[in-house]
Fold each of these.
Amino acid sequence: MLRKTAKYYKGYMPFVILTPLLMILEVVADVIIPTIMGNTINDGVLSGQIDLVYKNGLYMIIAAVLAFIFGGFSTYCGAKAGQGLGKNLRLTVFEKIQTFSFAGLDKFEVSSLITRLTNDIVLVSNVARMALRISVRAPFMFVLATFMAIRINIRLSMVFLIALPVMMLGIMLTMKFGIPKFRKFQSMIDRINARTQENLTGIRVVKAFCREKFEKEKFAEQNKNLVTTALAALNLMVIIMPFMMLIMYAVIVAVLWFGGNLMLQGGMEAGDLFSFIMYVGQILTSVMNLALILMNFSRARASLERIFEVLEAESEFAESIEQGVSEVVSGEIIFDNVSFKYPGNQHFSLHNINLNIPSGSTVALIGSTGSAKSTLVHLIPRLYDVFEGEIRVGGIPIKEYRVASLRDQVAIVLQENTLFSGTIRSNMKWGNPQASDQEIIRALEISQAAEFVLNRPEGLAAKVERGGVNFSGGQKQRLCIARTLLKNPKILIFDDSTSAVDMTTEAKIRIELNKFNPDLTKIIIAQRISSIQNADKIIVLDNGKISGIGTHADLLQDNCIYQEIYESQQKGMAAG
Ligand SMILES: Nc1ncnc2c1ncn2[C@@H]1O[C@H](COP(=O)(O)OP(=O)(O)O)[C@@H](O)[C@H]1O
Ligand SMILES: [Mg+2]
């Protein structure tokens, strides 16, 4: 785990090395001080040599100032290194998430990804900062101070040597019971984030269903659980800290008692006893710091595991992200015996699909919800990869294209589409960053969005709120179509993209699209027969299988599913 983390210190290595080095210097200065102090008491204060007191006092101040400087720099470098690690990890995790295919995204919950990107990384970076200092300081100080204490008086050292195992036991018990509690705490945070995220993204639905009270209660309960878990973990600290203090004071009292007796018998000087007690203090604090850092290590470990889970998840087609064919020569699409199932699903969503879509044709997909229409079109720009069979675009298997090139030229307007906060212009530039205002307006005209955009006083600079909430469903759909048109693709896929647009406007979009680029291959998923009856070819999907292919007239003759859809819509029209 540590080795894997090391490479994320990139760019901050000098700080990673400097932090412990400076720490060692600080510890040396810290450990010298009690000895100088002891000498001052023995040879200066008790024997009345006042200039020795001054001289040693000066040394002590120098040592203290050095300790301060080294310690300060070490803390500074540690903070740099820790924050650097956090920055690198955050960036890498974020970049990694961007490489996930749709299948990869199905694996992690959004809220969990957010917790990993924020909480977990902050925790790791804080622990790294601490660890770089304390994990050097504590053992080093422990060894040095123990050595000095033993040098002063080996018999007196027995006192704390007896106390040490007791402390260790206390620490081990705390870790044994504390670590699982902290783990649980972390997953509770995950859950509360998931809850909050789900609630906030669906807040409108919550209100529409008057479920606020229910949601509040559920949240309150989780919040309470979180606090209980946190307190259980912290209560352990409440017990362990005074316990450690108790041992520490007991040791000091014992040292004073035995040392005092020794002194009275003339076996020890007052100054030595004094510095001995200071060393005991240093030793015991090192032990406690060691315990603290071990505790934090195990928390950070849980977080690191969660971070690496994302980093080590497979991004399905990492190899073709950068390499491969970059030009889609024609809009011809061939499905060669394609079957597909979602990762983790037992059953196939698509069975043995064979299709031949000539360049420049308009093909429509129709079928009941769940018949796998969306699934079928997602395969063409490789949002998911086929399970069996092969898809060829422009005569070349899609796996041989550079993914970005393929997706640029096979443009899809997703069923669940979204706009991003910004302006209309910034949203349109998603399609093509170089698009001029003129081109944007042209695209808006085709998608029948120009009117309502240009009617706003700000025009293209009109604000788009997060998720496009300040536009109606139909307006959003038309903006999404315009954004996709700006890519100037070879293949255009509409996944139910005009479902919220009225029929007259939809017809206008269809006419404008044909004028826009007659060579464009169009795949249109729609619910309304009126939207697709002029298509060159209509594919009827049923439960992941092709039930029929043909023109409107063909299918009306010999496809009973199509007939049924047609009749129900005719009736609906008559009734409406
Ligand atoms: N991300 C997914 N993970 C697992 N199963 C999915 C996923 N998306 C869709 N499915 C399943 O695939 C089938 C087809 O869904 P879909 O292609 O969305 O249908 P349609 O677009 O025709 O309404 C459904 O049974 C659905 O449950
Ligand atoms: Mg769908």
Amino acid sequence: MARIKYYYDTETCKFEPVKTSTTDIVLNLAGFFIFSLFISIGLVAFYVNYFPSEREAELAKENQQLLLKYQILNKEVLASSQMLRKLQDRDDNVYRVVFEAEPIPMEVRNAGTGGTEKYRDLLDERLKREDIILNTFQKLDKLKKQMYIQTKSYDEIFEKAKEKAQMLASIPAIQPISNEDLTQFASGFGMRMHPIYKVMKMHTGCDFTAPSGTPVYATGDGVVISSEVMSGYGNQIEVDHGYGYVTKYAHLSAFSVRKGQKVKRGQKVGEVGSTGVSVSPHLHYEIMHNGNKIDPVNYFFNDLSPAQYEKLLEIAKQERQSMGGGE
Ligand SMILES: [Zn+2]
């Protein structure tokens, strides 16, 4: 049985029973429901937030692992960049210097790595870490570009090295007569008393005294540009080695090569003789560089021990003690 509530009516001065309308009941009930609903939502939100579901926990763990992997990847990219940096330094400061190539300017090495727009398609809008992914792609892009430039540089250096090898094979670098055949290194480059004209005269080459018929060798790779009889030099051969170098072999008794023929270093070009202005069999050997006659003694690198080389230099200084004679 429902409890009856009363209220005091000041007009009638009596207690009158309270009449509850249906509307009041409905409103009260609705209020109670809304209040309960808010409390429930609050409780659920609190629970979800502080007590994640198994699936959510898994996802969170996966996220952590992905982040860790990203950090490792990022470190790898950084390490690769640093390694490439070292290669670039060595390239600019050692290889390119050795082979006389200009260093590659920084702006070329870091050349435009292209916009990031091309990777936009790869990104899912739901991804929250799109920036770090973009960032990694950018770094990798830059790295790839720099590596490409580096390989181009190595190609260039390889070409230069081949050229250098060709140059080293061509530049005069041995004695034109083998040490075993050499009787005497008779006269060096410089002023001396001419053995025939008996006046001080510039001697523009080296004289090697050796028996007639001793083989005379090309001192570097090249092309025979002259194989002829001259009044002073007698039978002479000239070889053009390129790179501004020409060698002359004079007073020969015989020619072993003809004009236009390619020769290798150490290839026999003729035989020692005493043709032209000469008093006894010897080879007069000259090196011209860019048209100037230079001292050949600085170009006998390959076939002498350091002691022999020193001795040769010593003898070359005593240029006035001429014994071979002639040009
Ligand atoms: Zn001479």
